[in-house]
Amino acid sequence: MKNARSVFFILFLINLFNYIDRQAVYAVLPLIQKDLLLSDAQAGWLASAFMIVYMFAALPIGYLADRYGRVLWITVGTVLWSFSTGLTALCRNFTALFSMRAAVGIGESCYGAISPSFVCEMYPPEKAGMVMALFSLAIPVGSALGYIGGGILGQKWGWRNAFIFLSIPSLILAFFASRLKDPREKMPASRQTLKEKTSLAKDTYALFSTPSYLLTTLAGAAMTFSLGGFAVWMPSFFHREWHLSVGQAGMIFGALTVCSGVIGSYLGGFLSERLIKINPKSYFFISGLGLLIGMPLSILSLLAPSLKIALGMLFIAEIFLFLNMGPLNAVIVAVTPTTMRSLAFGANMLVIHALGDALSPTLIGYISDLAGLKTALICATLFLAPASIFCFWGMKHYQKDLC
Asked: Which of 19, 83, 184, 246 has the greatest count of CB atoms below 10 A from its CB?
């Protein structure tokens, strides 16, 4: 497949099911906990198992994909996470569940490290903000469908059957992934030079020596600490705080996330595409402003006296929090050489999850066991403040760091 729109469509669909398969487990978490007698801390470790493997696999995969081709890694990764999702239905204890979530993490890291640069290279540089924003729509939409689909399927047919059903579409899409043509095939000489003269350590050092890249990654880590915890625990919060059923909690949180995510991601891409012509620092400014406004609104949603007010506050908060989806990814593309972009996204994934949601769901679970889930989520929300600060700091360096 050579047409840019066709490639975008295939990769967007795979990204969509990437997040569906990733988030569905959290919609059925109360059912899994009841069936397997898991504590909140153990439930949190299921998310951490995924993230720890996901982040550590991303760096070497990104490095190898930059040198030896990306299509194979995308295809194999999609097949691996699909099979692992389906096999989750056979798990009978915490150890088996932990192992399957780790396997899903390996598969999805192949895709997460490679697909953003693959998509971007199909379009001219000035379109990067909007392209990344549209591609990132798969995050809220896929997450929402995971919550909604997982909640409905789990409540109607049981959580095991939900995992079997959700694993099938990704397997079909893996075939289409294998048919993609890497846009870098037009520059084999550059790739060969990169193979011979660079190392993983040297390239990684060069990336983090670039202030804009470093600050983007730190902002992403702080943001991911908060939002990763929300992604895991908000359905359970609605279930406990407002006495919604598992299906209702997943559907409401999913619908709210997809609507606010689509609006926020598109708005972030739209604003960045227009403001970048006026102010080159707008990628950082839009992201920092959205995080700054979103933090107090998130806290208000947790303290709201009624479900309607809670949902309203959370909806507005998520719109602002999703503004950065396109702009921050566009910063990574803009400040890294073409031949290092898979590594750049892989290293970014490693750091944002190592410092972000690799441990936050578990920490939230521990705090929840001690002080309640509401208190735990409020603590996690405070990390949006440093995320905003890192974005505003990045404005100082962006123009000097452009490739």
From this structure: 246
- The distance from CA 345 to its chain's CA centroid, rounded to whole angstroms, is 12
Q: What angle do CA 84, 90, 91 make, to 5 degrees?
A: 85
- Cα 192 from Cα 198, distance rounded (Å): 10
Is the per-residue pLDDT at 87 higher than 70?
yes
Cβ neighbours, 10 Å, residue 206: 16
Which distant-in-sequence residues (6+ apart) come within 8 Å of 190 by Cβ? 184, 338, 339
Q: What percent of the chain has pLDDT over 90?
A: 37
Give the predicted TM-score (pTM) of the model: 0.78
Q: What residues contact residue 257 under an 8 Å CB cut-off, 6+ apart? A: 140, 143, 144, 147, 318
- Helix H or strand E segment including 187: none
4-180+187-401, which class in CATH?
mainly alpha
pLDDT of res. 11: 92
Radius of gyration of the chain (CA): 20
Specify the DSSP class assigned to residue 339: G
Q: Locate tokens 């566009």: which residue?
A: 330
Cα–Cα distance list, 230 to 44, 121, 167, 283, 325 (Å): 12, 32, 24, 24, 17
